[in-house]
Amino acid sequence: MGGGGSTRRVTFEADENENITVVKGVRLSDSVIDRMKEPSSPGGRQPRGSGAVNDEELKKRIAEELALERARRDSEAQKRRLKQEQMYVRDEFGKLLERERISSNEHLTRAILRERAATEEERQKAQRFARQLEEKDRELKKHDAYYKEQLARLEERSAQFYKVTTEQYQKAADEVSARFK
């Protein structure tokens, strides 16, 4: 990044106060221009006669500043790509979570439907058993009524038999008593 030389042609000129301005090709911020205006030696400004050294130094500073600016732009581009990738990953996670939620909802719905079907089957079974129980109860009541009727008949017959037997006994006892009197 920033390793290749620029093929753009840039021209500079110095004004009367030794301020550097860009005439063509590259836009520089005020802070870059201020840094380029600063003298490189701690003793202050170099004399006007050493313009070749200043031009070389100036070109070197500009190249450094351009490299820094290019690195900053590359860094910003990487940050934008990273943010885009993060958004993409976040969207993919969101989609994945949504699919998982839908899948679990479908699973839950199927389980609820199975449970409802099992509950309905149990309810029908309970109704069937209740009907069978009622039928058995009716049958038992029917048998109970039949046996009560039979018992009543037997008791009536027994009472008649007892009455006849008692009458015959009384009659025989009266005959025996009349004979042996």
TrEMBL record:
Keywords: Disulfide bond, Lipoprotein, Membrane, Mitochondrion, Mitochondrion inner membrane, Myristate. The keyword Transmembrane helix does not apply. Residues 39-51 have a biased composition (Low complexity). It comes from the Eukaryota. It holds the Pfam family MIC19_MIC25. Residues 28-58 are annotated as: Disordered. Its main location: mitochondrion. GO terms for biological process: inner mitochondrial membrane organization. The keyword Mitochondrion applies. GO terms for cellular component: MICOS complex. It is a lipid-anchor. It is found in: Mitochondrion inner membrane. PANTHER family: COILED-COIL-HELIX-COILED-COIL-HELIX DOMAIN CONTAINING 6, MICOS COMPLEX SUBUNIT MIC19. This is MIC19 protein. The lineage of its organism: Eukaryota, Metazoa, Chordata, Craniata, Vertebrata.
